[in-house]
Model the fold of this input.
Amino acid sequence: MAKSKAKNLPIDVDKLLSGDRRSLSKAITLVESKKLEHRKLAQELIEEILPHTGNAKRIGITGTPGVGKSTFIESFGLYLIREHKHKVAVLTIDPSSPVSGGSILGDKTRMEELSQNMSSFIRPSPSSGALGGVALKTRESMLLCEAAGYDTIIVETVGVGQSEYEVADMVDFFLLLVLPGGGDDIQGIKKGILELSDLILINKADGASKTIADQTLAHYHSALELFNHKKDEWVPRVLACSALENTGIDGAWKVINDFYEQSSQSGKINDKRATQNQKWMNKVLWQMIEQKLKENPEVLNSWESYKKAVGKGSKSPYLAALEIVNRIFK
Ligand SMILES: Nc1nc2c(ncn2[C@@H]2O[C@H](COP(=O)(O)OP(=O)(O)O)[C@@H](O)[C@H]2O)c(=O)[nH]1
Ligand SMILES: [Mg+2]
Done:
């Protein structure tokens, strides 16, 4: 059993590692805190649990509001728990809604059975974060869930701002939910998101929408053929499902399994995670540098006077920036 090196951690690490939900909740709250002292403790905690992470399947789910993400996660999560004895953690990022707002409550009712199941853990992310933003917190929460023994982590996000790209940078597999229909153009879906997707799942393929869903399937197939896929790379799939009627859920899981089989054999999964970690390090590094500069009164002073000079036109923006940089690194 891991002994806590950091004695002053407010979290019982052994309990967390044994899967204690309360400890996991408290740990995530610590990670989410903006207080400097909490940030330090949170980093100690993350360092300590890091050797116990990395064993879960990390799945990102995105799609426009109303497409059925929460309903799908309810069906999918329960399927994994019942059929495959998984422990499922769900982290949701919705930058457009404060955590206390209505949408999370709505989600809880849509994920009612899952949220009450002892093999699941559902946690919404806060609407704003300190350094690294909301997504960094979610990433750290994901690691905590892995340490607590969850073997499937689902990160849900809505198509707002950069959140999909950030989620894609923390998961192995990216699943895009879309609606039946769409006609000649693929409605409202950013091309970049389509390119990130490992599986496009047409939800609500039930009732009167079933036929349309089949047409949409063909449509996405041909859209995907336009992308160039490198040799040895995962070729994105398209499937239809009904989260409400629980059809096609096993098909989606099969594709995800194929993905893991293929990419663990090729070593791609490790490469992907390594690259993601490096990207995150860089992201946080630049943010830290920016913060440090903004806290330095000397830099701030010259920054202000250069701003005035540039505003008056007595100095060019380029030269001003260069002189500030030279002052910083003198
Ligand atoms: N017919 C049908 N309705 C669905 C399906 N999945 C979700 N819905 C409905 O679509 C609405 C939005 O679902 P929700 O899961 O909250 O979407 P989210 O905003 O993407 O999380 C709800 O009224 C669901 O009952 C489905 O597979 N078929
Ligand atoms: Mg939802």
